[in-house]
Amino acid sequence: MADPVVVEMANRLAEECLAVQSETGEDRLFMKVGDVLGASSQTLEEAFLTAVRTRMANDQGRRFLAQTLAAHREKAGSGE
Asked: Global pTM?
């Protein structure tokens, strides 16, 4: 398990990276940042990539649930 300080740094960097990624539309920016990190710290690179991927997966899961609920409500509202 990574040092708590490393995890904290990775989490902050992941949040910042995803914000920049969203604003710029560069959807693979996190991979470039991971490469930069890996050149000096494989530990931070791994923690960062994990933090980014878990956040992205969470967002995808939430979107899926919202779409599923919207489709259900639309179907229920149409009387089918």
From this structure: 0.85
Contact assessment for residue 44 and residue 37, using Cβ atoms and an 8 Å cutoff: yes
Listed residue (40, 45, 48) closest to 13, CA to CA? 48
Please answer whether residues 10 and 47 qualify as being in contact, where contact means their C-beta atoms are separated by less than 8 angstroms: yes
Q: 3 is written with which tokens? A: 């040092």
Whether residue 55 contacts residue 18, with contact meaning beta carbons closer than 8 Å, is answered with yes
* pLDDT at 24 exceeding the cut of 70: yes
For residue 72, how many other CB atoms are within 10 A of its CB?
A: 10
Q: What contacts 24+ positions apart, CB below 8 Å, involve 64-73?
A: none
Q: What is the pLDDT of residue 40?
A: 96
Average pLDDT (18-32) is 97
- Tell me the residue type at 16: E
